From TrEMBL:
Source organism superkingdom: Bacteria
Protein name (record): Uncharacterized protein YndB with AHSA1/START domain
InterPro entries documented for this protein: ASHA1/2-like_C (IPR013538), START-like_dom_sf (IPR023393)
Residue span, Activator of Hsp90 ATPase homologue 1/2-like C-terminal domain: 26-158
Entries under Pfam families matching the protein: AHSA1
Family membership: Belongs to the AHA1 family.
Length: 168
């Protein structure tokens, strides 16, 4: 399942278990990568529209963890956990994402940050343990729309950083 962009036409061995979302952000990869990896930025944009994020622990290094709560617009809290499995600034991040460290349904995501002229093409490729879990994420939790909204929030946040930077 692919929402947008390149990579959608190339069928991989995990195609029936994955969701791929891309977005172009009008900023250099270094800035987009920074906004994605520094905790002071993450709470400003992380999550779908209407959600807010509270970080409980954050250590950005391979093997480090980010424990956080996403607060839904209806008041529901979602416990989240991420462990970084690969970090290659400013091109690539790989991570494991679930509700907790021992979540058997945790999924893997690889994010790439490619220069696209003066902009950055970010691709978020998520592979679920099973097709059923991928389908549930897409249908019950609207993972494609949520991912698109999250990357759109990132784009808006980075644009605001640039605007404030040019204003002095």
């Amino acid at each position: 399942m692919s929402a947008t962009g390149r990579g959608a036409s190339a069928r991989s061995a995990t195609a029936d278990r994955e969701i791929v979302i891309t977005h172009v952000i009008d900023a250099r990869p270094e800035l987009v990568f920074e906004a994605f990896t520094e905790v002071r930025h993450l709470s400003q944009w992380w999550g779908p529209e209407g959600f807010t994020t509270t970080t409980r622990a954050f250590e950005f290094r391979v093997g480090g963890e980010w424990e956080f709560v996403m607060h839904g617009p209806d008041g529901t809290d979602y416990q989240e956990w991420i462990s970084w499995t690969e970090i290659a600034p400013p091109e690539r991040i790989a991570l494991l994402h679930g509700e907790s460290r021992n979540d058997p349904n945790a999924f893997e995501s690889v994010l790439t940050f490619e220069p696209d002229g003066p902009a950055t093409r970010i691709e978020m490729r998520t592979v679920f343990p099973t097709k059923e879990l991928r389908d549930e994420a897409a249908e019950k939790y609207h993972a494609v729309e949520g991912g698109q909204q999250t990357l759109s929030n990132l784009a808006g946040y980075v644009t605001e950083i640039l605007r404030k930077g040019t204003e002095g």
